[in-house]
Design brief:
- 22% of the residues lie in helices and 29% in strands.
- With 160 residues, the protein is α+β, with helices and mostly antiparallel strands.
- The strands form two sheets. Strands 1-2-3-9-8-5 form a six-stranded antiparallel beta sheet. Strands 4-6-7 form a three-stranded antiparallel beta sheet.
- Strand 6 and strand 7 form a beta hairpin.
């Protein structure tokens, strides 16, 4: 009983604290933009990662392509600002085994190229779809992405 009285006495002795909303406790209302990043493939073993927020696709060759080529010794890339159509040749890859053309998976304008590949063509073997990307294309027709192969369809194509 003494404990209850003591607790009540302590509560009565404390000054009343009114709830004050602190900035950290207030809800934040932000406009969040949703970005959709889509990765698609061609039957010629190119891949494109498309970001719908920027309208840019990052073009690379697939891991399957680099393993088929063997050790890459030379990479030819398109010039900046080049307008390309879907299926146009945009470069070439030479390896100790063979040479292969690179085709544009989408239509648009070449905005950036991976200059590192000129001095380190082996990046295509080490990291073909990440560090070994070829170029960035600003798509003129983003709907073309939907006509390319999904990962599952590409895997089925490679196994056929």
């Amino acid at each position: 009983m003494q404990t209850i009285l003591r607790t009540a006495a302590l509560r009565a002795a404390r000054p009343s604290r009114a709830f004050v909303a602190r900035p950290s406790a207030m809800p934040l209302y932000r406009t969040q933009l949703r970005t959709l990043v889509t990765k698609r493939y061609t039957t010629d073993h190119e891949a494109v990662i498309f970001d719908d927020a920027t309208g840019v696709g990052i073009v690379s060759i697939t891991d399957y392509a680099q393993s088929s080529l063997g050790d890459v010794v030379f990479v030819e890339l398109p010039a900046l600002g080049t307008e390309v159509g879907q299926g146009d040749q945009i470069g070439a890859v030479e390896s100790v085994k063979a040479a292969s053309d690179i085709y544009a998976p989408v239509s648009g304008s070449v905005e950036e190229i991976n200059d590192t590949l000129s001095s380190e063509p082996g990046l295509l073997n080490k990291s073909p779809e990440e560090k070994g990307w070829l170029c960035k294309i600003k798509l003129s027709n983003p709907a073309e992405i939907e006509g390319l192969l999904t990962e599952e369809a590409y895997k089925a194509h490679c196994e056929a």
